[in-house]
Amino acid sequence: MTLAPQHAATRPAGGTGAATAPGPARRARRWGAYGLLMLGLVAALAVLGVLNIAQGTSGMTPGEVISALLGRGDEQTRALVLTTRVPRLLAGAALGAALGLSGAALQTLTRNPLASPDTLAVNAGAFFALTLAAVLGIGIGGITGSLLAFAGGLAAAGATMLLTRGGSDPVRLVLGGSVLAMAIGSLTSMLILLNTESTEGLYSWGSGSLAQISSAPLLQASPLLAVGAVGLFALSRRLDVLALGEDTARSLGVPVARVRVLTVCCAVALAAGAVSVVGPLGFVGLAAPAVVRLLGVKVQALRRSAALMAAAALAGAVVSLGADVALRSVLGALGALDVPTGVATSLLGAAVMIVIAFLLGDRRGAGHGRASTLSSAAGLRARLAWWRHPYTIVAALALLMGALVAGLLLGDATVLLGDVANWLRGAASVRLEIVLSTRWPRVAVAAVAGASLALSGALVQAVTRNPLADPGLLGVSAGAGTGAIVSLLVLPGVGFSGIIAGALIGGGIAAALTLGLGLTGGRDDTTRLVLVGLGVGTAALALTTMIVAGTDPYNQAKALTWLAGSTYGATPVHALVGAAVLVAAFALAQHLARSLDLAQLDETTPVVLGVRMGGLRWTILGVSVVLAASATAIVGVIAFVGLVAPHAARMLTGPRHRFLLLLTVLLGATLVVVADVLGRSLIAPGQLPAGTTTAVLGAPYFLYLLARTGRLRRG
Predict the structure, then answer these.
(1) How many domains does the chain have?
(2) Which of 122, 207, 302, 481 is at a distance of 20 to 30 A from 572, taking alpha carbons?
């Protein structure tokens, strides 16, 4: 797969002027192959269109559907076909084409095969803007919704491009965009949870649903879609020149900055228009250009931006309708009613991301190895040379104790230290007894979960020698969440032990897939590991969405609260189980601290000094999965703790794991306890899930880390 279209014509070293241009036969072969590709896509689209319009819950025969389309048959059948099936078909084809065109343009502009409305956080930003408008009582129908989605998507895309410095590095773009999308998604989930009445139905729609009751929404968004499509094709010649390099393009009179801005705006307009009609239809913009390139690997005409974008638009329509047809074929028309089509497109996008990870090969992506991050840590540690390990540990312990005390005192009802003392002596009032008896398990669970996730991240980073590795980015937390959701909703009678077992199984499967595919042959391949992890995590989240969307409103609200990472409903049993796992894992990690110090150096040195790297790697990874699964089981999915805490600890103590692991545990516990306190206090008596708060707090640090490692590598 090529990273970007190549447009320079190959000219013979000599010969006549006629020989300097492709001959008629060569030109015919080039465009003949392209014509066959387009014909095949059109044929596939026609077949899928027939299958799509024939599917439904009414039990109509294909003959009745055809009669209704021709204006025959009874009025009820015609109304049903024209108000539900035809709008669904048109929305799937038109908006899939819009997303495919948008993705192809972004990939051409950035010369990055992973660029898409999803990886640039465009869809997340557009959906957040629509959700916020719904909460504020602003109508999101018609052109208003399209313009709101455009504003939100453009802001998110601009932030991603700025943070990833143009998006040319595949890993940096995916990491930056995914993290920004995760933070925006946390804010969106918070709005939905706190405003269930005004946002009713947005969860399923937010995963991309083609269900339509008329063609009006598509017609209202069509001006924005038309502007975006026409604009991109008008810019295609300049994109061809820009692909030769910015210096060359400037020398040929192309206004590079203006072309970049206009291309991003047009691509965002297409994605925003799609979001305003069907919600974020996940990864169509990533999969469609990839499908075109894989099918037309030897089609030279695809080196032209216009040809690539036209083919990607057709492929986007094929992907969208194909996912919808496949979903309703597998689940049945009735079974697919509650499952968004975006679930199927996200599963396809996850597979495409894993395939691209293998095609990209062993590239030195963002933050590769330990050198870049540890060099920054060494610089900060030099400025903080007056710190010593014992004092650092004592300060972190004091910080944690302060957070624990604040957790007991603050919330929907504020209590005093004297009240806590009375409660400990058994002399508290009934009201105070109720408040503190429900509050201390939440504080304890938050501390245990934060410490477990932080320790898990530090261990994974040590044995993979990848400073960007953590349970969230490697798909382990998402897999554990899927397993726990299955136990929570599908098998509700299994209890807490069943949730832990489900989380362990889900996290173990996700870790096996990520590490098995990402560390093929034992190579230290940062690009592959991170992309495979994101792909596995995307697939797990799609499965979780399918399960949650198919349940009743009560269980859906319960699942959304749990998925956001909430300590609500925590019990002493949860805290004790999590603490037991944490203590055992920490003791084992301390026992292996010297081996971990050697393992982060390279593959050869530990073996020479007697460390069995194979056994160490799989032991540590197994412990990391158990830690992440136990934390997920007791509080739900919480992001960034396994990344932020180890990096902060490393900057204060250096890479020696005997001190690093202890400080990591203390900082991770403090981070989640503080997030939980803020969530219970900021909008009391309402509550924000701890996972939402940690995402909002952790995302800026991660993006700063991503930008800093880029500067260090360039320096």
Answers:
(1) 2
(2) 481
